[in-house]
């Protein structure tokens, strides 16, 4: 019978049974590893967005007049699309 590999913990479980998986997935270290994984993913996503905004800002022509609307416009917001972590 093959062993179960946990991607978050980088470890093999000795038995591949639902009860062992459930116990492992409910453990403190596993939950910490899952939280750290998604936190790292969100930080990378935010860094990419910041770099894209900086790149677009540098492309602007210096001294150019910014067009304004007759009414205030809400700034666009960018979100990383992430499902809830599986724990």
UniProtKB/TrEMBL annotation:
Entries under Pfam families matching the protein: zf-U1
Keyword set, alphabetical order: Metal-binding, Nucleus, Ribonucleoprotein, RNA-binding, Zinc, Zinc-finger
InterPro entries named in the record: Matrin/U1-C_Znf_C2H2 (IPR000690), Matrin/U1-like-C_Znf_C2H2 (IPR003604), U1-CZ_Znf_C2H2 (IPR013085), U1_snRNP-C (IPR017340), Znf_C2H2_sf (IPR036236)
Domain Matrin-type, residue spans: 4-36
GO biological process: mRNA 5'-splice site recognition
Record's keyword annotation contains RNA-binding: yes
UniProt KW RNA-binding keyword: yes
GO cellular component labels: U1 snRNP
Subcellular location: Nucleus
Signal peptide stretch: none
PANTHER family given in the database record: U1 SMALL NUCLEAR RIBONUCLEOPROTEIN C
Subunit structure: Component of the U1 snRNP. The U1 snRNP is composed of the U1 snRNA and the 7 core Sm proteins SNRPB, SNRPD1, SNRPD2, SNRPD3, SNRPE, SNRPF and SNRPG that assemble in a heptameric protein ring on the Sm site of the small nuclear RNA to form the core snRNP, and at least 3 U1 snRNP-specific proteins SNRNP70/U1-70K, SNRPA/U1-A and SNRPC/U1-C. SNRPC/U1-C interacts with U1 snRNA and the 5' splice-site region of the pre-mRNA. Interacts (via N-terminus) with TIA1 (via C-terminus); thereby promoting spliceosomal U1 snRNP recruitment to 5' splice sites.
Protein name: U1 small nuclear ribonucleoprotein C (inferred by orthology to a C. elegans protein)
Organism: Strongyloides venezuelensis
């Amino acid at each position: 019978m093959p062993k179960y590999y946990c991607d978050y913990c980088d470890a093999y479980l000795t038995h591949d049974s639902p009860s062992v998986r459930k116990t492992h997935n409910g453990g403190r270290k596993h939950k910490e590893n899952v939280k750290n994984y998604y936190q790292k993913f969100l930080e990378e996503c935010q860094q990419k967005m910041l770099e894209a905004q900086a790149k677009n800002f540098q492309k602007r022509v210096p001294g150019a007049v910014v067009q304004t609307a007759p009414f205030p416009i809400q700034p666009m917001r960018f979100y990383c699309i992430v499902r809830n972590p599986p724990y």
